[in-house]
From TrEMBL:
Region Disordered: start-end pairs: 107-127
Keywords tagged on the record: ATP-binding, Helicase, Hydrolase, Isomerase, Nucleotide-binding
Gene3D superfamilies attached to this UniProt entry: P-loop containing nucleotide triphosphate hydrolases (3.40.50.300)
Name listed for the protein in its UniProt record: DNA 3'-5' helicase
EC primary class: isomerase
Pfam families: UvrD-helicase, UvrD_C
Reactions the enzyme catalyzes: Couples ATP hydrolysis with the unwinding of duplex DNA by translocating in the 3'-5' direction; ATP + H2O = ADP + phosphate + H(+)
Binding residues annotated for ATP, in chain numbering: 284-291
Top-level lineage group: Bacteria
Domain UvrD-like helicase ATP-binding: 263-562
């Protein structure tokens, strides 16, 4: 049995009935209760319908593959609609490219509708009485019609449906174009979206592997179907279930949130399965499927090399837990490793990995690492401190040393960044070395006198930390890298390292990860989006012996959020120059979404009390519209806002919960924007984005560091806005955050 990706969602009540129907079908397709019946005068004689219950019928295609009956499940609809769909639907192998697809043969007269269109989607109801985002009035120009590519070429060369192409070229608006594509076969919709985003036909052919299969005209139709099932573009919408009832249950119950586990874009499949001669970098905007590729790639490497040691890591523990859950959903039987050096897949946050390597190291290894990093052969520090305690240590050093530096340099932020991006990666232990070292990537220039003053502060900072046996997470990463470097290539603890959210890693992490695995084929696979850099420093990979020249690609199609939300999120980055992890200019051009939804709403309130009133009213409206509030995220800038929002909603008769709490079940989750990284929700409220929500500390920084701090704030807003699959509300009281003016 083969499952065809659903265009129409299966609601909760129907899932169990569909599963029960298929359990019976797998046991005996002649069972009278199933009512597997052919149609009168169908467009495809292989089409069948089956009874789900008294009201709903399944539409299937029965094909004999190697003389064995094989069912393709197309969907379930109310009785009359199912009959109409069954009569007009055809299971077809595209003669131009060998892709398997379902086509609708009853074409309406109006070419503004594609031939296979189903019931048009119901426009979403406005969430609440609130003004939508103000967008300058512009005349929309159809990018397909203006692309210079002839519609006829898309039909003859790519194999796109002629009526769909004509309708797409005639679409009067962006929303209408995506509406049309929403009912097309996945590969055809993707091809037109990529063309609309500016890709050439050759690039689309390559991305969808349309030129890799040749249809044998002498083959039987069944032979063509069997071969088509192996086509990467077919696998975007078709997946073989066989007799695995548990797999069937997971496909049925997974829905939209879990579709990634089964259906991969051909381009994603290429990056997940292809082997590389060295390190590889995959970039892409939020929601383009980078993490999906990593999970499938980890599974591929572990299965193809059962004894291999595969490490899958990311910046935070929360994201690592998400990766762990994702891999379990993908393949719960995959061999797992408990510690570095064991066969199987090991998933851990990068700082946890550092600890697992450094803690069991010998005392001699640790002492040698301390000598290499700090210039003294001492025991390794026993007290780990985070960013805030470290900042206090810098403040202590500033108060203890007569440095003479101006305020924009005499602050913890500047000193910590200088220490972490210049001193530690270059293993600087003496003043003379610091005076000579190039400070590539540091925006603020330092003359000799200022370098001497900065070095005095660094010495004081290090001296105090040695007395207290303190070390930061960044220093520990460097120490672990030094330990691994001592051991050499013959004692690496991983064969393949896959890295998610790589833009947030610092220099110590990169040095550590480089030493974790020997240089060679498929050593490092790096997924990153520089527009989402909210933690790490800008550190080019080439500085750490990681070469990706010629092995770097970008994903552009967003699968998570709507076109409207994507446009809003990208607008938050407008005018802010972003560079990738190789120091090259990064662009959001070409990013597009395959989904449409409501226009994001901006809610202004005169006071914080009124803003809470607006939030409660929004949630009540969604609740009345039967939105599952358990899939709603309320994102704030600071931790102390979480409890205030939860208690404020409780006072207004609406329950909410902290992201770490399971109760009350079905209530919206409140968390910081930082914490939302890697998560997704059906609807999102960005709450409390008032003018005073920007950290005041950035104003004390030097101009270069100030610009980087503001870029991080923009990136944080971009991350938060792209957590929404459908509805997005942006809320503030008093004056709005200045950065919102970019939209």
């Amino acid at each position: 049995m083969t499952w065809i990706k659903q265009k129409d969602k299966i609601d909760g009540a129907m899932k169990a009935k569909v599963y029960s129907f298929f359990e019976k079908l797998q046991k005996d397709d002649t069972s009278p209760g199933l009512h597997i019946e052919p149609m009168q005068n169908p467009a495809d004689p292989r089409v069948r319908t089956g009874r789900i219950d008294q009201k709903f019928r399944a539409v299937l295609f029965k094909v004999f593959l190697d003389t064995i009956p094989h069912y393709f499940y197309y969907g379930a609809w109310p009785h009359d609609q199912a009959i109409e769909i069954a009569r007009s639907s055809v299971l077809n192998v595209n003669s131009a490219n060998g892709v398997l697809e379902v086509l609708r043969k009853s074409a309406p007269a109006n070419t503004a509708e594609p031939a296979r269109a189903k019931t048009p989607p119901v426009p979403p109801k406005p969430e609440i009485e609130s003004a939508p985002v103000t967008v300058p009035a512009e005349v929309w120009v159809n990018p397909l019609a203006q692309s210079g590519t002839e519609a006829a070429d898309l039909v003859s060369r790519l194999g796109l449906d002629e009526e769909l192409v004509q309708a797409a070229y005639a679409a009067p608006s962006d929303d209408r174009l995506i509406d049309l594509l929403g009912d097309a076969p996945d590969w055809q919709a993707t091809a037109l979206l990529e063309l609309a985003a500016g890709m050439s036909m050759a690039e689309v052919e390559d991305k969808l592997a349309l030129n890799q299969f040749v249809v044998d005209p002498q083959a039987t139709e069944e032979e063509k179907i069997k071969q088509a099932l192996e086509h990467p573009a077919t696998k975007m919408q078709f997946t073989f279930i066989g007799e695995d009832s548990e797999e069937l249950r997971r496909v049925i119950e997974g829905g939209d949130f879990d579709a990634w586990r089964t259906f991969l874009h051909p381009e994603q499949r290429i990056y997940a399965e292809r082997h590389y001669n060295g390190s590889f970098r995959l970039s892409g905007g939020a929601g383009t499927g980078k993490t999906v590729v990593l999970l499938h790639r980890a599974r591929m490497l572990a299965k193809s090399e059962p004894s291999s040691r595969v490490v899958l890591t990311t910046y935070t523990t929360t994201l690592a837990e998400s990766l762990n859950n994702g891999l379990s959903r993908l393949d719960n039987e995959l061999r797992r490793a408990e510690k570095p050096g064991e066969s199987g897949v090991l998933i851990a946050g990068v700082d946890s990995l550092v600890s697992r390597v450094l803690h069991p190291a010998t005392d001699a290894e640790k002492r040698q690492a301390m000598k290499g990093l700090f210039g003294m052969e001492l025991p390794a520090p026993s007290n780990l401190i985070g960013t805030d305690p470290s900042a206090k240590q810098w403040e202590y050093a500033l108060a203890s040393v007569d440095h003479g530096l101006e305020p924009e340099l005499a602050n913890a932020t500047f000193l910590q960044q200088e220490y972490e991006t210049v001193v530690l990666p270059n293993l600087i232990t003496a003043k003379d070395d610091y005076l000579k070292i190039p400070r590539a990537g540091r925006g603020t220039a330092l003359n000799r006198a200022k370098r001497l003053a900065v070095w005095k502060l660094i010495e004081e900072y290090r001296y105090h930390n040695r007395i207290e046996m303190h070390a930061t997470y960044v220093e520990m990463a460097h120490l672990a890298a030094c330990v691994l470097r001592q051991r050499g290539d013959g004692n690496r603890v991983a064969d393949h390292v896959l890295i998610d959210e790589a833009q947030d890693l610092h220099a110590g992490h990169w040095l550590f990860l480089r030493e974790l695995v020997k240089k060679g084929p498929d050593d490092l696979f790096i997924a990153e989006d520089s527009h989402q850099r909210i933690y790490g420093q800008k550190v080019p990979l080439s500085r750490f012996g990681i070469g990706i020249v010629g092995r770097s690609r970008r994903l552009t199609l967003n699968y998570r959020t709507t076109q409207q939300n994507l446009a809003y999120a990208v607008g938050l980055l407008k005018g802010a120059p972003v560079t990738d992890i190789e120091g090259e200019q990064e662009s959001v051009s070409g990013y597009t979404s395959s989904r449409v939804g409501p226009t994001p709403l901006e809610q202004a309130a005169p006071t914080s009390v009124a803003e809470l009133d607006n939030l409660a009213a929004t949630l009540k409206t969604w609740q009345e519209d039967r939105v599952d509030l358990g899939n709603v995220g309320i994102l704030v800038r600071y931790n102390n806002q979480v409890a205030k929002v939860i208690s404020g909603l409780d006072e207004r008769g609406m329950r909410a919960r902290n992201v770490d709490a399971s109760d009350p079940a079905g209530a919206p989750m409140v968390m910081t924007m930082h914490r939302s990284k890697g998560m997704e929700f059906t609807r999102v409220v960005l709450y409390g984005l008032s003018a005073d929500s920007l950290p005041a500390s950035y104003k004390k920084l030097a101009p270069a560091e100030q610009a980087d701090a503001l870029l991080r704030e923009r990136s944080l807003l971009y991350v938060a806005a792209t957590r929404a699959r459908d509805g997005l509300v942006v809320s503030w009281s008093g004056k709005p955050l200045e950065l919102l003016g970019a939209v």
